[in-house]
Design a protein that fits this description.
Two copies of one chain form a homodimer. Chain A is an alpha+beta fold. Chain A has three domains: 87 residues, Uridine Diphospho-n-acetylenolpyruvylglucosamine Reductase, domain 2 (2-Layer Sandwich), CATH 3.30.43.10; 119 residues, Uridine Diphospho-n-acetylenolpyruvylglucosamine Reductase, domain 3 (2-Layer Sandwich); 190 residues, 3-Layer(aba) Sandwich (Vanillyl-alcohol Oxidase, Chain A, domain 3), CATH 3.40.462.10. The first copy, chain A, is built from 14 helices and 18 strands. In chain A, the strands form four sheets. Chain A has a seven-stranded antiparallel sheet with strand order 15-12-14-13-17-18-16, with helices on both faces. In chain A, a hairpin with a 5-residue loop joins strand 17 and strand 18. In chain A, helix 12 runs antiparallel to helix 13. The longest helix of chain A has 20 residues. Chain A is globular. At the A-B interface, strand 9, helix 6, strand 11 and helix 14 of A face strand 9, helix 6, strand 11 and helix 14 of B.
């Protein structure tokens, strides 16, 4: 289906703010999670707004004409979140990347959505401030994308997720109305929490045009640790126990032996072929006591080595290895592709179980499934590697992938801890939330975007693949 | 207006679950913030559900008949939040007060809404766990009420508000549909954040029937401090500076000299007639360093005394005095009534300004306005005391009260940090949020409660006092 997007040229935008060139359209047809061009997902036009007014004008006109609009920025989403599934306009927000206001006395910064996450840290770094929930992809992904999926990262175990650090938003509704949500006060009980409703809604309810972020003061002390375990089960059990013991840890990441081998192949590191836990501790004082407390708990499990920073371990290299694991997995074997990026999260007491079960299922299916993740949150990243030229392998891989998500939900967890639903996980919405809750979400979608303009084909399971959650007024 | 509530007797409830007796109805006609019976706010019936099924049956039938339902529990709200403003049914949730499940290994507890907040701490205390955002009223107010207003308390400066400690909810929509929101995982990016949407919605979108709360481990060290300043301005400036310096403080409460005098009169304490700051520090180690850091900052201002626990100061008594300040203010002078409970919150850098402005306005109006509050959050509680028999004084008091709220909003703050909008602050919704955002909230209200069954007359400014946000299907 194609839409008539001629109206975009009548909105007073500059020539270089609109493109219908095939190359530009194709570059906005996919994200990391949907890296292959499927028929029908190439947008009809790409528009680069440079102001909130531009966004408002595009949305009002598009809604008027029943043309879908899908927000886009860095394209680093892993579930097809920014793919223009129904065509129409790809609204590329990367030019709206300014720091609008900075109030260090309140630990607050107002930024536009196209700003890279790491740019916030660079901007505020001289004042000793930082944005704690930055994901591992923070140097290539945008604040807008992080808000769209309620992203989180390695430091979430101590500091929380993106939603915990957003005080308010400016956003444009489907009909072009510009709203402001939240407050600059650190708490408010005034009205419905539209801020939290928009965070994680993946651009299906509004387009965020500005965000007021909270920042934190850099801790005076940091300490890094690498712990190597004899078994993966020992590693996950030690992590679960540590978190429940209230040890004040800022990062606690599990990496299995298979992932370690892949990291070594990718970047020439020499990680041992064994289950590992990387940790970082942040404190104003007493960081050594926390490390010691952690060590004492780890020693109750099958611990092989416990190395602190400088003690034979260069933590900076380890964090780089950890950060780049997704690339390492993808490039491990030219014949093997990761099927989807798994991102389940379970209650911390169930973490050993979900990892054990994942490894058992992988062995049973005879497939490579490297595992790593933000273990302190109960988060597991797993990839199912298959030879895509073999349909039987792909099917077996898909079954394995789904079985792990199902098991996470059974354990009281969620189908996605930080990557969002996008296109990839829509089928898990009803198993996780139940029909009633999904219907309530649909009601909210219809209330705020009655014509289904914004990012159609995402989050909600659809009865037919082409059906939009809300009926468009008209289609071209 | 009265409604026919005979249908309540046909829902299979026990005899003692429904009452139309005048005394029971009148006891549900007001809360602390609306302590006088106004014409028309007495409910037509009080219903005490004992299960989620009971709540569902009542809501489905009431919605079918266009009868308003207003959730009620302890009645400790300060903005008329639980007053049945349009009559109908007062749904008293105090019998649903069970601990449904307790998972100490995950620091989680599932409770019903009628449970007192302090009961959670009593239940989990043997495991060294506690519910950090408990408000000062936690021993007499319920978890459901705290969720309805997104309450917070003295420890919010360190630990956050109620919303930060709720992982998921069971709730009943206006049509009787039971939904579950959230997850037992500590983070999720799956679908719209219905949990956060319902928290703070004051029972206007759904009736919460169960909540999954997170708990925290009790800190190993606690230390209390009382600091006495020469001027209120010095006290608030010192607080603002301390918070911005990243001192790890768990409570930081300002009490002005007038409030101190009132506390002394109420409970025979001997607080000095001077501006004070009460503090508490929580840590696993290094608590003395934090106290010392705080002291060094305080000493840059006009500090009179800095007393740590045991050093001439019994902190337990001070916290009791602080906790009971609302009562002390109310009972200070038989001829003077507090007009409304003020609860504005501003960015921390603006805290000295809002307090200074409040005192200046009070002096100008020649009215008593005691001030105290959770200063670390930028929160100010103020009461305007007037002789209600003098209409001119009442008018002057109302103007003063409103001027302070207006100023808080101008400073980037909120009309209510923790008590909600209820009936009392509806006029500030549009000045604070703008028409567009309030309209978006109205759309959500209409989407989830199209007949306006749930707690009508709250949150939204109405063009006429009797108009419901959503039109009822029929009224008796």
């Amino acid at each position: 289906m194609t839409y008539d997007i001629e109206f975009c040229f009548e909105l007073g935008l500059a020539d270089d703010q609109i493109s219908v060139a095939e190359g530009r359209r194709e570059s906005h047809a996919a994200d990391w999670g949907a890296s292959q061009l499927d028929e029908g997902v190439v947008p009809d036009a790409v528009v680069w707004p440079e102001s909130t007014g531009d966004v408002s004008a595009v949305l009002a006109a598009a809604t008027d004409r029943g043309v879908p609009v899908t927000p886009y920025a860095a394209g680093t989403g892993l579930e097809g979140n920014a793919v223009p599934a129904h065509g129409g306009i790809s609204l590329d927000l990367t030019r709206m990347n300014a720091v609008v206001d900075y109030r260090p006395a309140d630990f607050q910064i107002d930024v536009q959505p196209g700003l890279l996450g790491s740019a916030v840290d660079e901007f505020a770094g001289d004042d000793g401030l930082f944005f704690p929930p930055l994901p591992s992809s923070g140097n290539i992904s945008t604040i807008g994308g992080m808000i769209a999926t309620d992203a989180s990262g390695m430091q979430t175990v101590k500091y929380g997720e993106v939603a915990d650090w957003v005080l308010g938003l400016e956003a444009v509704l489907a009909d072009g109305t510009v709203i402001r949500t939240g407050s600059r006060a650190v708490k408010t009980s005034s009205g419905y929490n539209l801020t939290e409703l928009l965070i994680g809604s993946e651009g299906t309810l509004a387009v965020v045009t500005e965000a007021t972020l909270e920042l934190a003061g850099r801790p005076a002390q940091k300490s890094g640790v690498r712990a190597i375990f004899e078994t993966l089960d020992a590693a996950t059990a030690a992590v679960s126990d540590t978190v429940r013991s209230g040890v004040d840890v800022a990062r606690i990441e599990v990496v299995d032996g298979l992932s370690a081998r892949m990291a070594n192949a990718y970047q020439g590191s020499d990680l041992p072929d064994a289950p590992m836990v990387f940790l970082e501790f942040h404190a104003n004082h007493g960081v050594d006591e926390e490390v010691a407390l952690c060590r004492s708990i780890f020693e109750e499990y099958a611990l092989d080595r416990f190395e602190t920073d400088g003690e034979g371990t260069e933590m900076a290299d380890l964090w780089t290895a950890r950060r780049d694991l997704a690339y390492a997995v993808a490039s491990y074997d030219a014949d093997l592709d990761p099927l989807h990026p798994g991102d389940v999260t379970v209650p911390i007491s169930a973490y050993p179980e979900i990892v054990r079960e994942t490894k058992r299922l992988a062995e049973e299916a005879d497939l490579l499934v490297p595992c790593f993740g933000h273990a302190g949150d109960g988060n597991l990243h797993y990839s199912v590697l298959v030879d895509r030229s073999d349909p039987q392998l792909v099917e077996r891989g898909e079954e394995l992938y789904a079985a792990i998500v199902d098991r996470a939900i059974e354990l009281g967890g969620t189908a996605t801890g930080e990557h969002g639903i996008g296109q990839g996980k829509r089928e898990y919405m009803e198993p996780e939330h139940g029909d009633g809750a999904v219907d309530a979400m649909r009601s909210i979608k219809r209330a705020l975007d009655p014509t289904g303009t914004l990012n159609p084909g995402k989050i909600f399971p659809e009865t037919e693949s082409g059906e939009r959650v809300c009926d468009p007024v008209s289609e071209g």
